[in-house]
Amino acid sequence: MNELLNKRIIFVGGKGGVGKSTASAALALAFSKEEEKTLIVSTDPAHNLGDIFYKKIDDQPVKIREHLWGMEIHPEKESKRYIESVKDNLKGLVKSRMVEEVHRQIDMASASPGADEAALFDRIVSIILNEVDHFDKIIFDTAPTGHTIRLLSLPELMTVWMEGMVDRRKKINDNYTQLLNDGEPVEDPIFDVLQARKEKFINVRDILLDPEKTGFTFVLIPERLPILETDKAVKQLDSYHLHVRTLIVNKVLPEHADGDFLRKRRQQEETYLQEIRKTFKKQDRLHIPLYEEDVSDMEKLTEFANQLWQELKGEAYHESHRS
Fold first, then answer.
1. 249-272: burial string, b at 16+ Cβ within 10 Å, e else
2. What is the C-alpha to C-alpha distance for residues 154 and 207, in angstroms, rounded to an integer?
3. CA-to-CA distance for 40 and 62, rounded, in angstroms?
4. Which of 106-115, 131-140, 284-293 has the lowest mean pLDDT?
5. What are the phi and psi torsion angles at 213 (to 5°)?
6. How far is CA 309 from CA 33, 52, 184, 248, 305, in A?
7. HSE-up of 49 (CA within 13 Å, CB side)?
8. What CA–CA distance (Å, rounded) separates 302 from 29?
9. Do residues 145 and 237 make contact, with C-beta atoms less than 8 angstroms apart?
């Protein structure tokens, strides 16, 4: 039985083009078929959950079928929402004559590299903290690998950064208290905002680092570049104490595929499957076959989900050389 079965929150990553979104959707569908209340969230700017489920999906939970809801987060929209929330937080904290200049500086900052990422991260934080008690499972279909690594490393980095901000603000207040306020503590709403954000990041970091609650899986196909990229990603996440225990090896040629062309492809594929076994000894590997047709409708997605569920339960049959 695979460890993902017991996780409340699952992040699915992978190189572009390996079937990551389809695997995420199949995983969500499999849980919902077991009557687990499941929310699938796409953080990939190139959303296709709506296309997969033939359903219009927005940035709030939309019911897709019994026990299954979906969301697509749009980085640009989140960036605007995030900037407005920052401005709201500053209301009453800066003098009225400075408001216009402060807003101008915030608008300029919103156009800087990483601003969309910060906004996206803030929304993910809110979803984890606000929705985790409303769903049995939350599955994040993330953007291609590099983006996912940066996003998942943010709780660690942001927590350290916020701790530094809070410490500096506290030191300023302590000096002010001693020198100008006769030892009386000062009321500082900015300190309170920083403290609240620090606690928020710590809570999310604790959830992400809790192996009882959160799992990480990567989707790859038996080809050279996806193997190399997945290996690099697994090691990077390890350095942030985020451990990938499961891999979904997608589009494996089935044994019944015949013909000289496929025989040669299978020989090459076997080399890569051996490389996967050798490289990822610590991970469970779930094999999904290459289907005769695209996973383009609910019938085929259900077939994918059923196969994935069998793999998760350890009930799928593998030939000995592929196990």
1. bbbbbeeeeeeeeeeeebeebeeb
2. 13
3. 10
4. 106-115
5. -105, -35
6. 10, 18, 62, 12, 6
7. 33
8. 7
9. no
DSSP lists the bridge partners of residue 217 as: 12, 246
Residue pair 202/2 in contact by the 8 Å Cβ criterion = no
Q: Over the chain, what is the mean pLDDT?
A: 84
Could you give the C-alpha distances from 94 to 88, 170, 216, in angstroms and in order?
A: 11, 18, 42
One-letter amino acid of 267: Q
Q: Give the largest Cα separation in the chain, rounded.
A: 88
Higher pLDDT residue, 87 or 254? 254
Q: Which residue has the tokens 């980085």?
A: 75
Handedness of CA 282, 284, 290, 295 (dihedral sign): negative
Contact 31, 66 (CB under 8 A): no
Is 57 in contact with 69 (CB distance < 8 Å)? Answer: no
Q: What is the pTM of this model?
A: 0.83
DSSP state of 222: S
Scan for tokens 């934080």, then name that residue: 125
Read off the amino acid at residue 319. E
Answer for the pair 214, 8: CB distance below 8 angstroms, yes or no. Answer: yes
Token digits for 294?
């695209």
